[in-house]
């Protein structure tokens, strides 16, 4: 009974977090034929920065897009002012060592304003629910693959996350998007930020894992 109650509680927290994101997101109902993203070798260097906000970030604060080349993922995020809320969440979930241990890999990092879309009460609740928080955060991490600009395809390329859920990477005109298992779509604001572990792609929406089936 305790296990069942815990699963229901985790699912309820995740649903509460998804509802405001769905309202703010720009996902649509179109279905796309998908392909599998090519796996890059550990020696493959990520392409340069891409995305609509790279120039603005660089102009306003160069530390958002540069200066993290010698740091693993979580350490690099801790130096990035756009990732303050994400860094706090990773710390609360006790995932710093886990995330830093992913090499090579790719991280889709929600910027501060992505978390600001979530009502404060809901966000604070999730931040105190370690299992749910871990489930959400590990969806943003991909092992062994250094995903670059070319990994986003017009038909949609699927990649598996550390959490187990699949993410769909798509290029739509000048936009690069990441769609989570629930169909929520995040836009890449600036991709290809280099760390010692691999590229970080700054996104505008928190990704959500698939809702657990009710028992």
Q: Can you describe what's shown?
A:
- The structure is a single chain.
- The protein is of the alpha+beta class.
- It has helices spanning 2-24, 54-60, 73-78, 84-92, 96-100, 112-116, 120-127, 130-137, and strands at 35-36, 105-110, 141-143, 157-160, 166-172, 175-179, 185-194, 199-203.
- It has one domain: FAS1 domain, CATH 2.30.180.
- Strands 1-4-5-6-7-8-2-3 form an 8-stranded mixed β-sheet.
- A hairpin with a 4-residue loop joins strand 7 (185-194) and strand 8.
- The chain is globular, with a radius of gyration of 16 Å.
- Residues 1-12, 22-36 and 38-47 have low confidence and may be disordered.
Topology of this structure?
Blueprint: H1 2-24, E1 35-36, H2 54-60, H3 73-78, H4 84-92, H5 96-100, E2 105-110, H6 112-116, H7 120-127, H8 130-137, E3 141-143, E4 157-160, E5 166-172, E6 175-179, E7 185-194, E8 199-203
Parallel strand pairs: 1-4, 2-8
Antiparallel strand pairs: 2-3, 4-5, 5-6, 6-7, 7-8
Helix pairs in contact: 1-7
List the main descriptive attributes of the protein structure presented here.
eight-stranded mixed β-sheet; 215 residues; disordered N terminus; FAS1 domain; alpha+beta; single chain
Brief account:
This protein has eight helices and eight strands; from the N terminus they run αβααααβαααββββββ.
Q: What number of domains?
A: 1
Into which percent range does the helicity of residues fall? 25-40%
Biggest sheet, strands in spatial order? 1-4-5-6-7-8-2-3
CATH architectural arrangement: Roll
Helix- and strand-based class?
alpha+beta
Number of DSSP strand runs: 8
- The amount of beta strand, in percent, is 15-25%
Number of helices: 8
Strand and helix order: HEHHHHEHHHEEEEEE
| Major sheet | 8 strands, mixed
Average predicted confidence as pLDDT:
83
């Amino acid at each position: 009974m305790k296990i069942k109650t815990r699963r229901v509680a985790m699912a309820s927290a995740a649903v509460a977090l998804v509802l405001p994101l769905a309202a703010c997101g720009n996902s649509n109902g179109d279905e796309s034929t998908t392909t599998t993203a090519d796996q890059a070798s550990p020696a493959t260097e990520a392409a340069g920065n891409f995305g609509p906000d790279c120039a603005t970030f660089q102009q306003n604060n160069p530390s958002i897009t540069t200066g993290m080349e010698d740091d693993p993922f979580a350490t690099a995020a801790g130096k990035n002012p756009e990732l303050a809320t994400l860094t706090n969440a990773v710390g609360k979930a006790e995932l710093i060592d886990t995330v830093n241990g992913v090499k090579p890999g790719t991280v889709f990092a929600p910027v501060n304003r992505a978390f600001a879309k979530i009502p404060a009460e809901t966000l604070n609740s999730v931040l105190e629910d370690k299992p749910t928080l871990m489930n959400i955060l590990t969806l943003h991490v991909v092992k062994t693959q250094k995903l670059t600009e070319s990994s986003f395809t017009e038909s949609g390329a699927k990649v598996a996350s550390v959490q187990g859920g699949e993410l769909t990477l798509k290029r739509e005109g000048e936009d690069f998007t990441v769609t989570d298992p629930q169909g929520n779509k995040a836009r890449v604001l600036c991709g290809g930020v280099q760390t010692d572990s691999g590229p970080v792609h700054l996104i505008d929406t928190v990704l959500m894992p698939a809702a657990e089936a009710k028992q």
